[in-house]
């Protein structure tokens, strides 16, 4: 599909990873690349890494060997853990990359140093910014000063900016460097098979479309509760929090796929137009009534004792960073007017819950004589692992006149590639379908900004839940 729609796009020959010695590159990006190359789906490629750590080539090779051996990281869910890559079709490519790839220690916000890094790259280059947004912006300004090799594609990790204003600024500088179709703003949820499954479920089954609207739908939840706690990521997370980390990017995209109108094709233009359209119609409800924030206190996640978030290494307790964010949004269009969409993500919760739940309205009239309480029909679309569940009332076993609840459930196998591998496949194939478009990145910030403001002004109290449970939150003492 991608080839027919995007045959005109130029493939990249060198992938340059900025921030190559950082956590994200080691944990997700390079293993995703390794997996992609191992399947033999990617074009011939050179790999150049650059970071501020003063690594020699041996250290870099060690990082690649580790990443390509794909020891699953703590953040990889079980369905993303792979067997060894040995004997895969691209095995020889991986070994070649390990041998030939180079690492350049540089501060890429400095034009002369960035020039030195680019000199090691051949052909059209894909520059992957695995960097915090402010550093990405400065590196883009440095690129503007030194100029870009022809055909360059920019691949920018999330979060795209820290707020609407910085996202607009970053979009402006990126737009001066390359045309929009050469920009890949990464949201790895768009590469998740569970998320892409929403498209097949909605648009390949005629039975759902007529009822997929306010007339029949009572409410929609998009939930991503993880059992992971901070896992040593304070430097990034403590300045971000759950709202910026998960809702602003990932969960709003899931909402968009659930709520958008059917696209005529799965070409990037059609799908991204539909996503943009529905997000433009989306607004957060009044934050005081429709949002919740909390952070975990000390507790136990499975066998692990977890300290309170405020006591985690590197955390500034006065910052009031939330590890649970919940926001209800509304979509002001004909299809969805008045239906609450509640988005929630929390860290440090067991059991995990990662799903979209569509709850339908009750029947207008239950025939007199049917006994029991009728419950609304529900569709659950699993976001991890892959599963689907339709909850219905039926005349079940036993008394033929009483209602029983049944669940028609199925689970299906995982994807060939992890989410980062799928997103990178799009990048290497020059297909922006799974990348966030610039206007959409800004739209996502517009939606969450009233909530960010209300929270920063203390209009919504910060609750607390014990790690490992979603027990009623209480207000945290942040003094
Ligand atoms: O981007 C992020 O996503 C992960 C959750 O995604 P998963 O694919 O690893 O389940 C989240 O834990 C992390 O905080 C966030 O930065």
UniProtKB/TrEMBL annotation:
The keyword Methyltransferase does not apply. Residues 201-471 form the Glucose-6-phosphate dehydrogenase C-terminal domain. GO terms for cellular component: cytosol. Residues 17-197 form the Glucose-6-phosphate dehydrogenase NAD-binding domain. It comes from the Bacteria. It holds the Pfam family G6PD_C. Pathway: Carbohydrate degradation; pentose phosphate pathway; D-ribulose 5-phosphate from D-glucose 6-phosphate (oxidative stage): step 1/3. GO terms for molecular function: glucose-6-phosphate dehydrogenase activity; NADP binding. Keywords: Carbohydrate metabolism, Glucose metabolism, NADP, Oxidoreductase. GO terms for biological process: glucose metabolic process; pentose-phosphate shunt, oxidative branch. InterPro entries: G6P_DH, G6P_DH_C, G6P_DH_NAD-bd, NAD(P)-bd_dom_sf. Signal peptide: none annotated. PANTHER family: GLUCOSE-6-PHOSPHATE 1-DEHYDROGENASE, GLUCOSE-6-PHOSPHATE 1-DEHYDROGENASE G6PD. This is Glucose-6-phosphate 1-dehydrogenase. It comes from Georgenia satyanarayanai.
């Amino acid at each position: 599909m991608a080839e027919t729609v995007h045959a005109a796009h130029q493939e990249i020959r060198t992938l340059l990873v900025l921030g190559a010695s950082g956590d994200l590159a080691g944990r997700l990006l390079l293993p995703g690349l390794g997996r992609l190359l191992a399947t033999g789906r990617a074009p011939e490629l050179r790999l150049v890494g650059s970071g501020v750590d003063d690594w020699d080539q041996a250290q870099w090779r060690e990082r690649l060997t580790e990443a390509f051996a794909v020891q699953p990281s703590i953040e990889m869910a079980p369905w993303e853990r792979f067997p060894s890559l040995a004997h895969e079709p691209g095995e020889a490519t991986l070994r070649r990359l390990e041998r030939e790839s180079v690492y350049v220690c540089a501060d890429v916000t400095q034009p002369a140093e960035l020039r030195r890094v680019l000199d090691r790259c051949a052909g059209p280059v894909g520059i992957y910014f695995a960097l915090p947004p402010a550093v990405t912006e400065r590196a883009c300004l440095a690129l503007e000063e030194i100029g870009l090799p022809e055909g360059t594609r920019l691949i920018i990790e999330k979060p795209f900016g820290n707020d609407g204003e910085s996202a607009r600024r970053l979009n402006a500088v990126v737009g001066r460097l390359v045309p929009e179709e050469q920009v890949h703003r990464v949201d790895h949820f768009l590469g998740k098979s569970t998320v892409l499954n929403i498209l097949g479920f909605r648009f390949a089954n005629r039975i759902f479309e007529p009822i997929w609207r306010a007339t029949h739908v009572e409410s929609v939840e998009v939930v991503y509760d993880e059992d992971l706690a901070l896992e040593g990521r304070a430097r990034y997370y403590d300045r971000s929090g759950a709202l910026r980390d998960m809702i602003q990017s990932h969960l709003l995209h899931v909402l968009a796929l659930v709520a958008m109108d059917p696209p005529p094709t799965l070409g990037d233009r059609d799908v991204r137009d539909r996503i943009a359209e529905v997000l433009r119609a989306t607004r957060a409800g009044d934050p005081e009534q429709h949002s919740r924030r909390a952070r975990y206190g000390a507790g136990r996640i499975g066998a692990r004792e977890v300290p309170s978030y405020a006591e985690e290494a590197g955390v500034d307790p006065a910052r009031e960073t939330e590890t649970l964010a919940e926001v209800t949004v509304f979509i002001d269009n004909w299809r969805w007017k008045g239906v609450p969409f509640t988005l929630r993500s929390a860290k440090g919760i067991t059991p995990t819950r990662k799903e979209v739940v569509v709850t339908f309205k009750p029947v207008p009239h239950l025939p007199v004589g049917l006994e029991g309480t009728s419950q609304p029909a529900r569709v659950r679309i699993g976001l991890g692992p892959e599963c689907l569940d339709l909850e219905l009332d039926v005349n079940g076993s036993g008394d033929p006149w009483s209602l029983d609840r049944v669940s028609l459930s199925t689970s299906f196998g995982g994807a060939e590639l992890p989410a980062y591998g799928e997103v990178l496949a799009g990048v290497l194939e020059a297909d922006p379908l799974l990348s966030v478009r610039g206007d959409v990145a800004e739209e996502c910030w517009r939606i969450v900004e009233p909530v960010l403001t209300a929270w920063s002004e203390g209009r919504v109290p910060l609750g607390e839940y014990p790690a490992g449970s979603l027990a009623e939150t209480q207000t945290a003492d942040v003094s």
